[in-house]
Design brief:
- By secondary structure, the chain is of the alpha/beta class.
- It has 15 helices and eleven strands.
- The strands form two sheets. Strands 1, 2, 3, 4, 5, 6, 9, 10 and 11 form a nine-stranded mixed sheet that branches. A two-stranded antiparallel ribbon has the order 7-8.
- It is globular, with a radius of gyration of 20 Å.
Length: 343
């Protein structure tokens, strides 16, 4: 069985350089496919440099087509039996490829979700290698001592020769904060301990997720109208046709966080209408309530909170007696029409 890592990247050249370095030291071989989705920075120079030391399949988009279209283009260009999707600002743990391959070898129809961690130390840096600040963060970085700045940096030498130094700084969740950490914990708990849960597709990840290429292409790939939560929508379609979400234990990835660029799915609701139009089921309507339940300060009563994927499944079956349409309205979420009420 062979594996292709599909990386979609736009204007993150310095982080991409580190991502490619992390893939060059894997314990199992993999094809690496990079989709440059219309970058205007020095991504092409980074890719040219990388091809000097390792084979690389590059797909170039002159103009940005979005995350889903970029991922689909990479999948079409890939040749591996298994596709492993990774973002261009995310490091692969040393045995990421090996872990995903082993899990697919033992489980047919798998949609494999690895363990998604983040590095908070890079959030103010434009270039984690040199410690150069992001625009607007010059004063903040200028106040740091040399030792403090050194501790924030992530270098190719560390990636290649001292990955333990990177792992020691990592924290659970794709982003910093109690909410992303709790979401990561709940998703992995369900994937490991509740294989019969009917909403495991909600634990899908946009990065560090693998699927058989044949199944991906047969399903039509990612919905290109979605560029947020496209991974969950694909996982739902795959699960509806016999796919199985499962944890890939020990398959760690490390998001090199940055202060800008994150889209909050609770405030950016365009995705929800598209997702719900394709899948007008209660569980989709309740995703936003589940995520809102993870944070403090939301206008939710104790009996309205959805605190786990198992609780999401129960609520989707209408077994709680809560009028979740009214809850959504109170949370300021848009009305979604086309399916039965959530009461």
């Amino acid at each position: 069985m062979s594996l292709s890592v599909v990386i979609r990247s736009k204007d993150e050249a310095d982080r991409l350089r580190l991502t490619l370095a992390s893939l060059s030291r894997q314990t199992a071989p993999a094809e690496v496919v990079v989709v440059d989705d219309g970058s205007s920075d020095h991504t092409q120079a980074v890719l040219a440099e990388a091809t000097q030391t390792a084979p690389l399949v590059v797909v170039q988009h002159d103009a940005a087509k979005g995350r889903s279209a970029a991922s689909n283009a990479g999948a079409r260009a890939a040749s591996g039996d298994v596709l492993l999707f990774l973002d261009g600002d995310t490091l692969a743990g040393p045995d990421l490829v090996e872990r995903h391959l082993a899990r697919h070898a033992e489980t047919g129809g798998l949609i494999g979700r690895g363990e998604t961690l983040h590095l908070r130390c890079t959030r103010f840096l434009a270039d984690p290698e040199t410690g150069a600040p992001r625009p607007g963060e010059e004063a903040r970085i200028g106040r740091l001592s040399a030792d403090e700045l050194t501790r924030m940096r992530v270098t190719r030498d560390q990636v290649l020769n001292d990955f333990n130094a990177i792992q020691a700084r990592a924290e659970p969740g794709v982003y910093p904060g109690a909410g992303p950490r709790r979401l990561h914990e709940l998703e992995m708990l369900a994937l490991r301990g509740q294989p019969g849960c009917t909403v495991l597709w909600a634990a899908a990840s946009g990065s560090n997720q693998s699927v058989r290429r044949e199944a991906f292409l047969a399903a039509g790939g990612f919905n290109e109208r979605l560029d947020i939560n496209e991974h969950r929508e694909l996982a739902l379609r795959l699960c509806e046709t016999g796919g199985r979400m499962g944890a890939v234990d020990g398959a760690f990835s490390y998001h090199l966080t940055h202060r800008s660029g994150w889209r909050d799915p609770l405030s950016d609701a365009h995705w929800e209408a598209l997702f719900y139009a394709a899948h007008p089921i209660p569980a989709v309507k309740l995703l936003a309530v589940f995520w809102a339940s993870l944070g403090a300060g939301r206008d939710l009563k104790p009996n309205e909170r959805i605190g786990s994927l198992a609780a999401l499944e129960i609520a989707a079956h209408g077994a709680t007696g809560v009028d979740y349409d009214a809850v959504r309205q109170r949370l300021g979420l848009p009305a979604l029409n086309g399916a039965r009420a959530l009461a």
